[in-house]
Design a protein that fits this description.
The chain has no helices and eight strands. By secondary structure, it is an all-beta fold. It has one domain. The protein is globular, with a radius of gyration of 12 Å. The N and C termini lie far apart (30 Å).
């Protein structure tokens, strides 16, 4: 699986809680929960008060929460990982690669989102 991404815009975000790397994060600086809107993807992990780079436009590497197929629209699961969007929640991105299981990193095209 390719380990590449093309970030067009990366912002520094002050975290308000513990965030793992390659997870979706909210505009408030928290790790995204199930179905949540996301500002982008944290490149690194951190704890409350840390400034971390967050990819908000372009593509980013995201940890999958389950098997995902290239072309699937994705949303955040309860741990901020990418899972296939089915019928509810904020559409956050489009998978550009396949994940065979939870824990795989996939490239995701970030899209503007709203629940």
């Amino acid at each position: 699986m390719p380990q590449q991404f093309v970030s067009i815009l990366t912002l520094s975000l002050a975290l308000t809680g513990i965030v793992a790397p390659s997870r979706f994060v909210t505009p408030a600086g928290a790790q995204a929960g199930a179905d949540a809107n996301a500002l982008g993807v944290a490149r690194t992990g951190g704890i409350s008060g840390d400034l971390v780079p967050v990819d908000v436009l372009g593509t980013s590497l995201v940890e999958a929460g389950a098997a995902v197929s290239a072309g699937d629209t994705v949303k955040a699961d309860a741990s901020g990982r990418a899972v296939t969007w089915a019928t509810s929640g904020a559409r956050i991105g489009i998978a550009l690669g396949d994940a065979s299981a939870a824990g795989d990193l996939i490239e995701v095209l970030l899209i503007p989102n709203a629940a």
